Amino acid sequence: MNPVSESVAPSRQQETPQADDHVKEISPGRRRLRNIAVALFLSILFFMIFCFVALHAYIAWVLSNPTVAPLYSNPKQAIGVEYQDVTFPAADGSRTMQGWYIPAEDADSKKTIVLSHGYGANREEVWIPMYDIANYAHRLNFNVIMFDYGFASHGSKEVATGGKKETQQLLGAVHYAKQKGAEQVVVWGFSMGGGTALQAALVSDDIDAMILDSAFLLQPDTLYHNIRQNIPLPRHPSLEILQMLFPILNGTSLNQIPYQKVEKEDYPIPIFFIHGTEDTKAPYEIAEQLAANQTNPNSRSWIVEGSHHELIFREHPREYLRRVSNFLGDIRLAKQEEIKQGESGEGATLPSP
């Protein structure tokens, strides 16, 4: 038995090294395949991340650089009123603004309406249409200022900042109205022009009243709401990526836009909020919230069932102008009453319109 066992043992001992040698031969190949697979996976992952971030960079760039059509007319050609080409500095002196000044027929008029156009438009904003609004204000014996924000200026265009720079530009128009002799300045804002007016009124006492049509306030909810209309991106991390990219592409962080303060502010001046329930760019609930914060007795809101972003005047022209007329009339009556009671020593109890 011992010879047999001795003869078998060596053969088994010889098989084991051969198996080990075989394992040693295929291990490097498997490692190479594994390394290639990992490298391929990481390459695909990094490429997808790059594409995802690049898409957000493109969105941020497009939002910061809206395409704006050139001016096609002027107040004389469009509505038959005399006007002046004017320039004035932004309130912070950062740039020169260009616009039109339409004097009231009554040379002694001390009332001026500053028209604040929306994003992606210029002072003409044809879909409103702005010329009709200007003509209406002119007929009410207001001086009218129509001007281009920096992002709409074809002479020296700059990026759109959601109100950061535009606030100073709007205040430049308000200050110009004051220099022309205005004692009462009403800002009539549309879309982002309305959101800019809300920001401007936080830092200036020179605005006496505001009419805000489809006011758009740039904040995370409205930003994502608008992006979602076109591209089904996830809320997170899309908002975080965009907030990281905006300071790089247009020099403005969302944190520099005082949307939280605007959403809580009770403005001392009268404000007329006009908004449509079918507004897909600026949800009407925001306008309702802003209106609910106001305690000025002349402030009010008109939420129009079924109307769309910046198209309320087109959809309900007579009702629109009637309500605006009532608002402006109430402001004038409040002003007169304040003066009368002020002469009798009782004016301190009344709000200043």
Share in helix: 40-55%
Write down how many β-strands occur, each being a DSSP E stretch of 2 or more residues.
Answer: 8
Mean pLDDT: 89
Q: How would you sum up the major sheet? A: 8 strands, mixed
The secondary-structure class comes to alpha/beta
Low-confidence stretches: 3-13, 342-353
Query: Beta-strand level of the residues, as a percent range?
Result: 5-15%
- Cα radius of gyration in angstroms: 32 Å
Element string (H = helix, E = strand): HHEEEHEHEHEHHHEHEHH
- What general form does the structure show? elongated
DSSP helical segment count: 11
Strand order of the largest sheet: 1-2-4-3-5-6-7-8
Distance between the termini: 120 Å
Describe the structure.
With 353 residues, this protein is an alpha/beta fold. It has eleven helices and eight strands. The chain has helices spanning 2-64, 75-79, 130-139, 164-179, 192-203, 220-230, 235-250, 259-264, 284-292, 312-315, 317-343; strands at 84-89, 96-102, 111-116, 143-147, 184-190, 209-213, 271-276, 300-304. Helix 5 links the parallel strand 5 and strand 6. Helix 4 crosses helix 5 (192-203). It is elongated and about 95 Å long.
